[in-house]
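ugh ok fine here u go
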Amino acid sequence: MIRVTVYNEYLHEKTNEAVRAVYPNGIHSALREALESETVSVRTVTLDSIEELTETLLAETDVLVWWGHRAHHQVPDEIAERVQRAVLCGMGAIFLHSAHHSKPFKRLMGTTCDLTWRENGDRELVWVCDPAHPIAEGIGRFIKLEAEETYGEPFTIPEPDRTVFLGNFEGGEAFRAGCCFHRGNGRIFYFQPGHETYPTFRNPGVIRVLQNAVRWANPIYRVSSLGSPHVEKPLV
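structure:
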């Protein structure tokens, strides 16, 4: 059983009718529906309950999925540091859409993680540029999204270990839409689609990517704390 924890701010859904129409029970609920299965258990945490992201919960989490947008600054620094330590110890992490500016992601990348953007509802094609990667399994040449927020280069992240997807928008922008990193013992996947006003997390291709990413990020080696020789999840 892969244990997933989904964090979502859960702010837009409570204040914006357009977002509530797409995700009436919150983005975190849509992600739980997409990921939960006989082999994956999912718990959810929102900004209102962020103190639940304790060291104990993170130690019991195999993969953390993070969606954030307008309240990055409200995430306590100690929780961002806690997430960073958990990844270094071996927890997997998936950062979605605007989570490129979340505190945990920026700590793990060590850069500003800035990009260019505009919100015009452009069509996006998410092209597979590394078809042999496990996260691309079951995806054709591309995923078509009828409307998404446009992200564009330059994206000021470190060079990814692998770039699995490249996004292309109607306005001509190109963007590294699916990037893999290793930090310490942990695996990290950043995936660009997922603006709150569009039903991106209902798209079968996006759901398949997220399911694949959870399996890829699932730890194969994890220690109880940094510098500890005790192995909780041994190499297989």
